[in-house]
Every structure is written in structure tokens, then in C-alpha cells.
Specification:
Elements lengths: L1 E4 L6 E4 L1 H10 L8 H9 L8 E4 L6 E4 L9 E2 L1 H5 L18 H11 L2 E2 L3 E2 L7 E2 L1 E2 L5 E4 L8 E7 L5 E7 L5 E7 L8 E4 L2 E4 L8 E4 L8 E4 L2 E2 L2 H10 L4 H17 L2 E2 L3 E5 L3 E11 L1 E11 L2 E8 L2 E6 L2 E2 L2 E10 L2 E11 L2 E4 L5 E4 L8 E4 L2 E2 L2 H17 L21 H4 L4 H6 L18 E3 L6 H6 L6 E3 L2 H10 L8 H11 L6 E4 L16 E4 L9 E2 L1 H8 L1
Parallel strand pairs: 5-6, 7-9, 8-10, 10-11, 11-12, 12-13, 13-14, 15-16, 16-17, 19-36, 20-21, 21-22, 22-23, 23-24, 23-25, 24-26, 26-27, 27-28, 29-30
Antiparallel strand pairs: 1-2, 3-4, 17-18, 30-31, 32-33, 34-35
Length: 553
């Protein structure tokens, strides 16, 4: 291990022995930013939810985009950008060894047209981003193969869900996070294979339960107390979902949750790994919301057979990838952002589709042996690439991700505001850009509802992304009727923030199991230690996996 001082936050961080081997393998210097600052730098490049109406700079059509009209580069609608009418190699240029690489790359990026957003193969789903194969969806991001889903993210193969985060193969669910194979579940967390749950946490294989925590294959339970079918049906019939009753149920559920132990991480089948929301991972450190990671570190939202990678955010398949953000399948590639299909043996590329052996390119479609969008022969490409890397070593640019100062988004437009929120003053003090939306003077009517966050100054401070007022779409109204739900009092960004706050932060603390009961593997207090996303000052009873299984399973 080696101690380093982060050049951004000035705090000390440790480089693990396995990381040294990785950096040597991919031939990059040791990182100058700590893992958290590296993550923040990548998140600054991600705008998932903020949509703008603007003109397409190619066709003049009104389009929906993640870029504002005043963005300092042209923006094209999807159909035109992906067509043969647009070829990014037309913007190719020579590399100037007398100037920094990032300066030249930024000039290229500001000239090449940007893709307005990505919602491939979707039907009647104009307001979706980083998504594909959706039908009749609205305000949905990082999601695929859904129908009639809205106001959510990471929805996969689901039907008629709203205000949900991380739902898979579920239907008719609302205001929930981390559901798998669930139906008609309302305000639930970390549940699977369950039907008709309301206000439940960590329940599996359950049917018709209300306000329950940690149940397995149970039916007709009310705040963990068993009832007969007749008793349960009577309670449900008498219970009316209103804003006040929903608030009361959530508060009571929170009290019950504190009486039940929680496992130190969310997930299963984890070996020699640390993080949260992990599944089937081996030798993976400091990972969050990851599945099938092996020999990886500092990963977020990385899914399906990712091996020997570091510092990757939002990838599906990958190997030997480093400092990558929102890339479908990166192989042996580094410093890549917002690219699609398979990216192989490439560095410092952005908004490219299916490229290999490219360096410093933007907006290419199936390119190979290109540098700054200029085509080279295979032999000339590798010679020039090595010369550029050597020059970047001299300027201390090689090994660094794209500088935050050239991010296409302001701090409060990007996803970093959700995981590492700052006030406008704090962001500006740290040197980040901030975007002040135009004042909105909505006339409050039966169709236009004022967000309840606007009713007092303290709420307004808590919800800086509030849209102040909102409409409820016909599609969402139909789901409310099916589930007997009231119209919400908050706008979509405020509801989204409430959901995100239910998940633990993407940080880890060293702690010891809090179990003081007699179990098979210990007689008195358990001495197992672990890294957990439950901070020491939190009120939950945090158990190691063995003790948790003794209590819950």
C-alpha cells in the first residue's frame, strides 16, 4: 500500500497493492485524485434527467435534448446524427505537439455536432435518455425493454411502473427502489418475488403484507404481525391512501426497521469484496450497484461480467477498462465517456459508436485508427499514438480523465448533484459551473399543481432542483387509479431526491458487527469487522452476514 495526497480535495488516500499491478498493466501513472474525487469528476459528465426543448442545428426542428440551446457546440437530432448525412471524420485535424492535448481535444469537441440524447429503438418515448427498446415511456432514463414506465431510472423489462429506481421484471409498482419480480407494490425497498406489498422493506416471496420488514415467504402481515385473511382484507379495505396516511405509514415503517437488524451490505453471493448493492462479485473493492464484477475496484453501476477494471461508471461488459463513464462495452480502453456498442483498445474518446484503436476522437461511427478524428494507416496510427502519449507524459496529462472545467454540464445539471449535493455558493467556490433556470411563473390550476416543496423556505433549500409546479400525465393518472393512489404533492425532481435519500451513500466506513446474541459462530458479542455504507452515527443495528442470516432467514 502507498499513501497519496489527492490533488483535488487535498485528503490522503491509499493505493492498494492490487491497484499497482493494474496501473502497470495498462501503462498509466498512479492516480492524482482520490477515488471519490475521480468519481465526482466522471459524474460531472452525466446529465440523465434534465431535458431541454431546443432546435436541431442541422434540420431546425424542435427537439428534446440534454443540452441547452446556448450550449457552445452544435446539437443534432438522433435520426440526422446517426444518418449518412453526418460524418465526424470531416472534422479531423493534425495533432500539434506544441499545445496540450486537452486543449486540442476540447476544440474538436466544440466543433463536432453532439447527439441530442439516446433513446434507441423506442416507440412513443421521446422523453427518455440513455435508454433503448422502450414503448410508451416518459421521463425514464438508463432503462430498457419497458412499457408504460415513467419518472424512473434503471427500470428493466418492466410494465406500468412509476417513480421507481432499480426495478427488474416488475409491474404496477410505484415509489419503490430495488425490486425484482414484484407486482402491485407501493413504497417498497429491496423486495423480490412479491405481490401486493405496501410500505415494506427487505421482503422476499411475500404476498399481501403492509408495513413489514425482513419477512420471507409470508402472507397477510401488518407491521410484521400475522393476521388471518379476513382480518387483513378488512384492514386494507378500511385503509385509504392519502398524503397524510402515506406519511404516517412511512414513519411507522422507519421505526420498525430500526428494531430489526440490517446486513452490512445489500446484495448476495459476494466474496472478498466491499461496497453496497453487490451481487455475484469476487475480489471487488469499493463497488456500488454492481453485478458480476471480478478483480475490480472503484466501480459504480457496472453490470454483467466486468473483469479487471478500475474507476468505471455505468458500463455493462468490460475488461481492462479504466476511468470510463457511460460506455456500453469497454475492452482495454481508458478515459472514455458517453460511447456505445463495443469500444476496444481506445483512449480519450467521447460519443463514439463501435470504435477500435482510436485516440482523442469525438462522434465517430465505427472508426478505426483515428486520432483527433483524422484517419491514419495502421502503422502510422500506432507510431503517432506513442509519440502523443509520450508528450502527454511530459505535460502530466497522460493518465488523467477529462478535466471537470470542460464538462458540457453545470454541477447542478449533472448526476454529481444527486450523490454529492452542493449549494450554488459551494459549487462556485470549488470552481464548478452552475445553471440557474429561468424563472417559472406557472398559473396554478386543476391541471397544474404547485410542488409542496415551495411552501416554505426550508423545503426550498432541501430541494434545489424543484420545478416548482407540475402536471400529472394521463398515463400516470391511470396507474394512480389502478393502485388507488392520491396525486403526489411533490414534483418529479423532489420525489426523485426523496427516493435517492433512502439509499445509503456511496461511501464506506470500517465497523464491527453489532450482534450481542449467542449464535453458532460466536457465544457473546460478534467480533467480525467489515466495510459498510452505514455510517457509525446511524441508528440501524448493523450485522455481519452470518448473524443477519441467523436472525432473518
Amino acid at each position: 500500500m502507498e499513501n497519496q495526497t489527492c490533488q483535488n480535495c487535498k485528503k490522503d488516500f491509499i493505493i492498494e497493492p492490487d491497484d499497482f499491478g493494474f496501473y502497470k498493466k495498462v501503462k498509466v501513472p498512479l492516480p492524482t485524485f482520490c477515488p471519490e474525487c475521480r468519481y465526482i469528476r466522471r459524474l460531472l459528465d452525466r446529465n440523465e434527467y434534465n431535458f431541454y426543448k431546443r432546435k436541431c442545428d442541422a434540420t431546425g426542428k424542435d427537439i428534446i435534448s440534454i443540452y441547452r440551446q446556448e450550449a457552445p457546440f452544435p446539437v443534432y437530432e438522433q435520426e440526422y446524427w446517426k444518418s449518412d448525412k453526418f460524418d465526424a471524420t470531416a472534422y479531423g485535424r493534425d495533432f500539434d505537439f506544441n499545445r496540450p492535448f486537452f486543449e486540442q481535444y476540447e476544440e474538436l469537441r466544440r466543433e463536432v455536432p453532439h447527439l441530442a440524447l439516446v433513446n434507441s429503438n423506442s416507440v412513443n418515448s421521446e422523453y427518455t435518455n440513455q435508454s433503448e427498446d422502450n414503448k410508451d415511456c416518459y421521463m425514464l432514463v438508463t432503462s430498457g425493454e419497458n412499457e408504460k414506465c415513467m419518472y424512473g431510472s434503471w427500470n428493466q423489462i418492466s410494465h406500468f411502473c412509476a417513480d421507481c429506481y432499480m426495478v427488474l421484471r416488475s409491474e404496477f409498482c410505484y415509489d419503490s427502489i430495488n425490486l425484482t419480480k414484484c407486482s402491485k407494490c407501493i413504497s417498497c425497498q429491496d423486495c423480490s418475488a412479491s405481490v401486493e406489498l405496501k410500505f415494506c422493506i427487505d421482503c422476499r416471496g411475500c404476498v399481501s403484507c403492509f408495513g413489514c420488514v425482513g419477512l420471507r415467504e409470508k402472507q397477510y402481515h401488518w407491521f410484521n404481525e400475522p393476521l388471518t385473511k379476513e382480518e387483513y382484507d378488512k384492514k386494507i379495505k378500511e385503509y385509504v391512501l392519502t398524503p397524510d396516511s402515506i406519511k404516517e405509514a412511512k414513519e411507522k415503517l422507519a421505526e420498525l426497521r430500526l428494531k430489526n437488524p440490517v446486513k452490512y451490505y445489500h446484495g448476495s453471493q459476494v466474496q472478498n469484496s466491499s461496497g453496497d448493492y453487490m451481487e455475484n462479485c469476487q475480489r471487488a473493492l469499493y463497488i456500488f450497484n454492481c453485478k458480476e464484477n471480478k478483480d475490480a475496484s472503484y466501480m459504480q453501476d457496472a453490470w454483467l461480467r466486468t473483469e479487471d477494471c478500475r474507476d468505471c461508471t455505468e458500463i455493462i461488459l468490460g475488461e481492462l477498462a479504466y476511468e470510463v463513464q457511460w460506455v456500453e462495452t469497454p475492452h482495454r480502453s481508458m478515459f472514455i465517456r458517453s460511447c456505445f456498442n463495443t469500444i476496444t483498445d481506445s483512449c480519450y474518446c467521447d460519443m463514439c459508436f463501435g470504435v477500435s484503436d482510436c485516440f482523442g476522437c469525438f462522434g465517430l461511427k465505427k472508426g478505426k485508427y483515428c486520432i483527433l478524428n483524422k484517419q491514419y494507416t495502421k502503422e502510422d496510427y500506432f507510431k503517432l499514438k506513442e509519440k502523443i502519449i509520450e508528450r502527454m507524459r511530459e505535460t502530466k496529462e497522460w493518465g488523467e480523465y477529462f478535466p471537470s472545467k470542460v464538462s458540457p454540464f453545470a454541477y447542478n445539471e449533472s448526476m454529481v448533484q444527486h450523490y454529492f449535493p452542493l449549494t450554488k455558493e459551494e459549487a462556485l467556490q470549488k470552481g464548478y459551473a452552475w445553471y440557474d433556470r429561468l424563472a417559472r411563473n406557472y398559473e396554478i390550476t386543476e391541471d397544474v399543481i404547485q410542488c409542496s416543496s415551495q411552501k416554505d423556505s426550508e423545503s426550498m433549500k432541501k430541494y434545489p432542483l424543484c420545478t416548482t409546479a407540475f402536471r400529472t400525465t394521463p398515463l400516470k393518472l391511470s396507474l394512480y387509479k389502478i393502485l388507488n393512489l392520491p396525486i403526489p404533492e411533490k414534483c418529479f425532481p423532489c420525489r426523485r431526491q426523496d427516493r435517492l435519500e433512502l439509499r445509503n451513500p456511496r461511501k464506506l466506513w470500517h465497523r464491527q458487527c453489532m450482534c450481542d446474541k449467542k449464535h453458532a459462530h460466536h457465544k457473546e458479542g460478534c467480533d467480525i469487522e467489515f466495510e459498510t455504507s452505514y455510517a457509525p452515527n446511524r441508528p440501524e443495528i448493523v450485522y455481519c452476514e452470518k448473524c443477519y442470516q441467523q436472525e432473518v432467514y
